[in-house]
Design brief:
Helices cover 89% and strands 0% of the residues. The chain has 85 residues and is mainly alpha-helical.
Length: 85
Amino acid sequence: MNFGKNLSIFAQIVAYIIAIVVLIQILNAIFGGTWEIEEIILALLVFNLTVTFSLGGAIINLNNKISHVDKRMHAHFEWHRGRNK
């Protein structure tokens, strides 16, 4: 299992859910709704943290992929060195 990929997918799903709830509450606040401004700011902060973890998982996943490419290139260059000698 790839931890970075799973973390990224889970955090993205949570971020979408939080974004929908925050957007609905912001629209409710604009049209005389239920949440106070402090609660909206707190919800946006939680959304920001969720997006940060989502990006962190994507970066971990990307780093794993890049490290495998480096190993393949190194093996390929070593193959050429052995063949040219």
